[in-house]
């Protein structure tokens, strides 16, 4: 019996793992309105939560990463106190857990949250405390989730080494890795080589936003100069695969991989793909033509992610539902993406294995059996 496409409600029941989600791209619109009032921030485009949510989605739907990123001015503006950071982090954990996410890595840039006088350490500790609270509250509601933090440095700024040092300092209390984000064109990852080399010497983990708004050279630098463990997005990797026609479809048996895409597939380098976000920034023209279809068919280590739930008005279940509709993905595919994500998490091996064997596989077995 063909049960595809799967619905959002069905997918919400499935245990899922999320590797790429921005804390400042996932606030509840009503929370933004309340925090703005508390902190005296008067520049919001609307104080009606529904209207504000629509404003974020429409403004982010710009076809350009730079304009998409402008919307973060408002979320970051209301995340400048301990209380605000704790609340946003707690709600993030609760919202992800309610969507059936059992493991999440949530990222944010501490350097963007010091305008109200907090130190970088205070920012990090507030967010960690918020995640702890949110995980506890989710557990009380019957949703178990584990949240790890990635500390992001902004690629146009010059604080990456400092942020990388903090990622190492807080690694035993909830910070699991490091990332760089922000406008990609003009800011190659090698600008931050010092930070990446430091992390490598410290046996630490990091991912790099690459191949989203800029092409193959960015991916190549991220891997071969900086040593990234994973790639944020990586959609432009398809530029290194021949036999792809203009709408992204391909005869998989005829696809020819270039050196870089071969390397990525051979080394099982995880791709943190974010379909809706990519359509909004113009990195992909539609979900149906998104490179994820090809890369999954070619068995790259693809994972599915939300990027910014507020700007994309999405959840991880919604992303999977869109993919199920576009590509006919069923439970086996969802399990495959989820196991890929869990294998690629910045958690110790035994803990990844415990989640795969103790939570993810039994969860999918039950769903498949129920049909
Ligand atoms: O898709 C993306 N590409 C690059 N940068 C991003 C993306 N989404 C969010 N940010 C940037 O990351 C910062 C920390 O979370 C956000 O403030 C935003 O500027
Ligand atoms: Zn991102």
From TrEMBL:
EC number(s): the record gives 3.5.4.4
Site (Important for catalytic activity): give the residues.
Answer: 233
Q: Which UniProt keywords apply?
A: Hydrolase, Metal-binding, Nucleotide metabolism, Zinc
Q: Which SUPFAM superfamilies match?
A: Metallo-dependent hydrolases
This enzyme catalyses:
2'-deoxyadenosine + H2O + H(+) = 2'-deoxyinosine + NH4(+); adenosine + H2O + H(+) = inosine + NH4(+)
Glycoprotein is among the record's keywords? no
Q: What class of enzyme is it?
A: hydrolase
Necessary cofactors: Zn(2+)
Q: InterPro entries, per this entry?
A: A_deaminase, A_deaminase_dom, Ado/ade_deaminase, Metal_Hydrolase
Record-annotated residues binding substrate? 22, 24, 182
- Give the residues the record marks as binding Zn(2+): 20, 22, 209, 307
Which is one GO molecular function term here? hydrolase activity
**Adenosine deaminase domain: from which residue to which, for each copy?**
15-359
Sorted alphabetically, which Pfam families does this protein's record hold?
A: A_deaminase
* Function, as annotated: Catalyzes the hydrolytic deamination of adenosine and 2-deoxyadenosine.
Residues annotated as the enzyme's active site? 212
Q: What is this protein's record name?
A: Adenosine deaminase
Q: Which Gene3D superfamilies match?
A: Metal-dependent hydrolases (3.20.20.140)
Tell me the cofactor note.
Binds 1 zinc ion per subunit.
């Amino acid at each position: 019996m063909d049960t595809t496409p799967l619905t959002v409600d069905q997918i919400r029941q499935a245990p899922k793992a999320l590797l790429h989600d921005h804390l400042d791209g996932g606030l509840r619109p009503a929370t933004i309105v309340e925090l703005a009032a508390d902190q005296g921030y008067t520049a919001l485009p609307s104080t009606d939560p529904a209207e504000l949510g629509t404003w974020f989605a429409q403004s982010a739907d710009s076809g350009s990463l730079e304009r998409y990123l402008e919307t973060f001015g408002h979320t970051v503006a209301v995340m400048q106190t301990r209380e605000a950071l704790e609340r946003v982090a707690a709600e993030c954990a609760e919202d992800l857990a309610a969507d059936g996410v059992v493991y999440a890595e949530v990222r944010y840039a501490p350097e963007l949250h010091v305008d109200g006088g907090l130190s970088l350490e205070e920012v990090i500790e507030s967010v960690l405390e918020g995640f702890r609270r949110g995980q506890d509250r989710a557990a009380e509601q019957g949703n178990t989730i584990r949240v790890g933090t990635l500390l992001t440095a902004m690629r146009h700024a010059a604080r990456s080494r400092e942020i990388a040092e903090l990622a190492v300092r807080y690694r035993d209390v909830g910070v699991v890795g490091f990332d760089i984000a922000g406008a990609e064109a003009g800011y190659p990852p090698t600008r931050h080589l010092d930070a990446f080399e430091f992390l490598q010497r410290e046996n630490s983990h990091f991912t790099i936003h690459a191949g989203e708004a800029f092409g193959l050279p960015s991916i190549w630098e991220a891997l071969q100069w900086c040593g990234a463990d994973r790639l944020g997005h990586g959609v432009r990797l398809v530029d290194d695969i021949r036999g792809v026609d203009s709408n992204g479809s391909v005869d998989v048996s005829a696809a020819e991989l270039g050196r870089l895409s071969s390397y990525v597939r051979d080394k099982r380098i995880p791709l943190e793909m974010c379909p809706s976000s990519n359509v909004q920034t113009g990195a992909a023209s539609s979900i149906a033509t998104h490179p994820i279809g090809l890369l999954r068919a070619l068995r790259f280590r693809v994972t599915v992610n939300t990027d910014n739930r507020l700007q994309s008005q999405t959840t991880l279940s919604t992303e999977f539902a869109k993919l199920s509709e576009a590509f006919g993905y069923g439970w086996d595919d969802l399990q495959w993406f989820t196991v890929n994500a869990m294998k690629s998490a910045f958690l110790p091996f035994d803990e990844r294995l415990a989640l795969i064997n103790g939570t993810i596989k039994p969860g999918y077995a039950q769903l498949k059996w129920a049909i």
